[in-house]
Amino acid sequence: TQHFDARLWASKVREMKELMNEYGEEKELWITEIGWPTHKQKERIKFQYTEEEQGKYIPRMYITYCANNFGQKVFVYDFQDDGVQPENMEHHFGIVHPEHNVRTPFAAKPALITLCAMNHMIGNSEYTDSVYFGEFTAAHRFVDRNSGEQTVTVWSTFTDSVALNLGTDTVTVFDHYGNVVYEYKSKDGIYQFDLN
Questions:
Q1: Low-confidence ranges of the chain (pLDDT < 70)
Q2: CA–CA distance from 169 to each of 22, 184, 191 (Å)?
Q3: 18-40 as b/e: b if 16+ CB within 10 A
Q4: 105 with 111: CB under 8 angstroms?
Q5: Comparing C-alpha atoms, which of 68, 75, 175, 42 is closest to residue 193?
Q6: Counting Cβ atoms within 10 Å, is residue 77 exposed (0-12), middle (13-18) or buried (19+)?
Q7: Are the CB atoms for 18 and 71 separated by under 8 Å?
């Protein structure tokens, strides 16, 4: 199965920034036309993702972008699917289904919901720090500019379990769609999270 390797992607962007610096002053870096196609093939091939994977990888890419101070501009490709041919990769980069020739025009894919949840939770926040647990598990902290409320995003590409000292006696856990999953309480501020 394929996955989004946030650390590998970040290292490639860092290489580009270093190359830019080598040949002149640092410029703002814009990430344009980044996305994950959800087309259907008889056999799963490279650059073919499920709608659920697309919904996980786009927010992960943005959070990785913030955590590495790459800049302010990220343009997801594409808002709307460009067509309906199931096997045509270029028709299925959208975060909503197409307008025509479908049962529900502009129906949201999971990616739209996860982006809305991410924007709601960290849209007015500053990135502060990260913790990496091996190659495929990461936690990134954001602090709201007005309230000071902290949001920590945690994910793993594979099943993992991590402990975080969050320094608070209560945390609310949300899934990537913004739904409350449960509330944890801790006397010492340390929480164990099982990730999948």
A1: 1-3, 44-45
A2: 47, 8, 10
A3: eeeeeeeeeeebebeebbbbbbe
A4: no
A5: 175
A6: middle
A7: no
pLDDT for residue 44: 67
User: Smallest Cα–Cα separation from 152: which of 169, 174, 179?
Assistant: 174
First-last CA distance in the chain: 14
In degrees rounded to 5, what are phi and psi of residue 136?
-120, 10
CB atoms within 10 A of CB 44: 11
d(CA 80, CA 30): 21
What pLDDT was estimated at residue 2? Answer: 55
The burial of 10, by beta-carbon neighbours within 10 Å (0-12 exposed, 13-18 middle, 19 or more buried), is given as middle
Per-residue tokens: 16: 């580009």
